[in-house]
Specification:
The chain is 23% helix and 32% strand. It has helices spanning 31-36, 85-93, 103-118, 129-135, 206-214, 223-238, and strands at 27-29, 47-60, 66-76, 81-83, 123-127, 143-144, 165-183, 190-204, 242-249, 255-262. An eight-stranded mixed β-sheet has the order 5-3-2-10-9-8-7-6.
Length: 276
């Protein structure tokens, strides 16, 4: 029997464990959410990755001196499991009073534990604050559609019927919006994000696309499934030659989640936006 999100630590009072405890990680199979979208592990129409960034990574050196750093975790989009976010944070907190000889040893432990939980190899980078500071803040790709004058009344469920396109107009463009919001399906708490769409094919009607994105506003789902739903709805509408959809979500509990889905083999740069 696979664990469900309702059985996870999310939304429950949890004891702070400060010494290394990999059993805190709580995997949730993707299969059920894929099935909701008419997909299976064998029929995924995209490639991609989920970037998780940890802003609260700390451990002890053999001298007892603490170290702080930032962690980047790249989980394959076709991994059998996602890792429930609160369990991820609890696991990372369990490193706080644990001794590692150096960042390389810690990185090896993170790769082992997270890959076991996800069911596929997870790439890990332990990054210094100076390194991340030097990268600065990036700007979303393409044109922002948030200033369009659009009347909106649908907020409860994603509404792909709102989407329109001009089949006679072929374009290659990137669009972005900062108005993506959905709710955690377990706690009901809001998740805020910036979504970027890059595609080559019939031109999507921008006003209809903005109204469609806002229709997620009260929708309850995980970050990864929201991005996958947007990808699938645009793919069905446009039948494009290429399509990439990704979202950069605002962090909660020291973690942000950034799902990327594409028809192409992509190697995205995991660069933070201003709200991250």
């Amino acid at each position: 029997m696979h664990p469900a999100a309702e059985d996870s630590p999310l939304g429950k009072s949890s004891e702070y464990v400060a010494t290394y405890t990999p059993s805190l990680l709580f995997p949730i199979p993707r299969a059920a959410k894929w099935a909701e979208l008419g997909l299976s592990a064998e029929t995924l129409p995209y490639q991609g990755v989920d970037f998780w960034n940890c802003f609260e990574l700390s451990w002890l050196l053999p001298s007892g001196k603490p170290v702080v750093a930032m962690g980047e975790f790249a989980i394959p989009a076709d991994s059998p499991n996602i890792i429930e976010s609160k369990s991820f944070k609890l696991y990372l907190n369990s490193l706080n009073q644990t001794v590692f000889s150096d960042a390389e040893q810690l990185q090896g432990v993170l790769v082992k534990d997270l890959s076991a939980a996800a069911g596929k190899p997870v790439a890990v980078r332990v990054r210094s604050l100076a390194e991340v500071t030097a990268e600065g803040v990036s700007v979303p790709e393409g044109e922002c559609i948030d200033e369009l004058d659009v009347s909106i009344s649908n907020y409860e469920q994603p509404a792909p019927e709102l989407l329109r396109c001009d089949a006679s107009k072929q374009v290659e463009e990137a669009l972005h919006s900062h108005l993506l919001k959905s709710n955690c399906p377990v706690t009901g708490q809001p998740d805020w994000g910036t979504v970027v769409v890059k595609y080559r094919g019939p031109a999507v009607d921008r006003s209809s696309f903005l109204a469609y994105l806002v229709s997620f506003r009260q929708h309850a789902d995980f970050h990864e499934q929201c991005v996958e739903r947007i990808f699938l709805d645009l793919q069905r509408l446009l039948q494009p030659q290429s399509l990439t959809v990704y979202a950069r979500y605002v962090r909660r509990g020291g973690l942000d989640i950034n799902p990327y889905r594409s028809t192409e083999a992509i190697s995205p740069a995991n660069q933070r936006l201003v709200r991250q």
